[in-house]
Each structure stands twice: as structure tokens, then as C-alpha cells.
Design brief:
The chain is an all-alpha fold and 225 residues long. It is built from 7 helices and no strands. Helix 2 runs parallel beside helix 7. The longest helix has 55 residues. The N and C termini lie far apart (99 Å).
């Protein structure tokens, strides 16, 4: 009780708005839309370093995996109440995304694709934003964090998805969906298609070289005879 009283006094000091409301608006209209900017910038860097000629389809598929690891928790959070189950999904998505990010950079370096300092700095944003969102949600839903630490005991809805009591505005959800399509699905789909096409061209070229080499061997054998 003493700690809570001190926290209340600190949060009230100088506050001119409701902190919970301000944090929610920050997540919905600040952090989430801003997330698209470094993602799009990263795609530009991949294109400038000609990913299709180096790490190719493998790294592009890793990018798709990373977006899925982040996208699924975001989609669920926009539609369902934050509870221990959803917190676990968010924690797992953040942890797996971080591990996949390491795999992504290692794949690029092994392929000799140059990961420039600017791209590394973009990665720092992409890796830190999930932690920022998760910690902000934890502060907004501290009761659910405590419930998670207790294993959800006493809460019949702790381990199932529960629809939001106050659904987000349809216009906002449509706007987010459009932004995902324009800033994520479209550019990274183009990247994957470009990598697949380059891979097929290389495969055809290798077949031509192999056929040419076999023909040269046959001609040499005929001349020897």
C-alpha cells in the first residue's frame, strides 16, 4: 500500500492527461504506424545491396518469417483483450523475432551481402520496437501481468482469447490493414518475387553451362577417336 501510494503521488505530480489514455494513443497512433517506416527503409537497403544476387530467396523468406512473428501478436492484440494468454503470445513472438533477427544477419553476412551501418541502425529500431510495445502494454495491463505470474489462477478467461469489450474503430483497423499491405506485404512480396526470379535465372544458367561442358567433352572424345 505504501509503494502504491508513492507511485500514485509520483504519477499525479505534473500530470495533465490520463496516463493510460495517453499510452494507448501512443501505441495505436504513434508506435504502430512508426513501425512501418524502418521496415520500408530496410526493404530499400535490401534492394540497394541486390539481395537477389547474394543471399537471395533464403534471406527473403527469413524476412517473411520475422514479419509473421511480429504480425500475429499485433493482429491478436488489435482484436482481443490483453490477458495472460495474449501476453504469452506477445512474449514468445518477441523472443523468437529476436532469435530470427540474429539468423537474418548471419545469413546476409555468410552470403557476402554487405550489411551497411545504415541498415544495421535500421535493424536496431526494428528489434527494439517489439520490446517497447510489450513493456508499454505491460504497464497498461499490470493486473494481467500479475495474473500471468500467478499462472492465471482465479481467472477463468486467462487462457483463452477474449474479444475486446470495446472494439477498435473500423476505420482504424482498415487503415492499419492498408498500411500493412502498402508498406509490408507489397514491397517484401516484390522482394521475394525478385529473389525467386533471380534464382531461376541462375539455375537455367548453370544448366546451360553444364550442357555446354558436356558437349565439349563429347567433342573432345570424338576427336580423340
Amino acid at each position: 500500500m505504501i509503494r502504491r501510494g508513492r507511485a500514485d503521488r509520483v504519477s499525479d505530480y505534473g500530470a495533465t492527461v490520463d496516463v493510460g489514455d495517453a499510452t494507448t494513443r501512443y501505441l495505436l497512433y504513434g508506435l504502430l504506424p512508426f513501425w512501418f517506416a524502418p521496415g520500408l527503409a530496410d526493404w530499400v537497403m535490401h534492394r540497394r545491396t541486390r539481395i537477389e544476387e547474394t543471399s537471395g530467396t533464403k534471406e527473403s523468406l527469413i524476412h517473411a518469417l520475422m514479419m509473421t512473428e511480429v504480425g500475429v501478436p499485433i493482429a491478436l492484440t488489435l482484436r482481443y483483450e490483453v490477458n495472460p494468454l495474449l501476453l504469452c503470445v506477445q512474449l514468445a513472438g518477441t523472443a523468437v523475432h529476436e532469435a530470427t533477427a540474429l539468423w537474418d544477419v548471419r545469413t546476409a553476412e555468410d552470403s557476402d551481402r554487405e550489411v551497411k551501418p545504415v541498415e544495421q541502425h535500421i535493424h536496431s529500431f526494428l528489434e527494439s520496437l517489439p520490446f517497447a510495445a510489450l513493456t508499454a502494454l505491460g504497464c497498461l495491463h499490470s493486473d494481467q501481468v500479475r495474473s500471468l505470474l500467478r499462472g492465471g489462477r482465479g481467472d477463468a478467461r486467462a487462457w483463452r482469447l477474449v474479444r475486446r469489450r470495446r472494439p477498435l474503430p473500423r476505420g482504424y483497423l482498415l487503415g492499419v490493414t492498408a498500411a500493412i499491405g502498402a508498406c509490408v506485404a507489397l514491397p517484401y512480396g516484390e522482394e521475394l518475387l525478385r529473389c525467386l526470379r533471380a534464382g531461376r535465372r541462375r539455375a537455367r544458367g548453370e544448366k546451360v553451362l553444364e550442357a555446354t561442358g558436356d558437349e565439349a567433352v563429347w567433342q573432345a572424345e570424338d576427336q580423340a577417336v
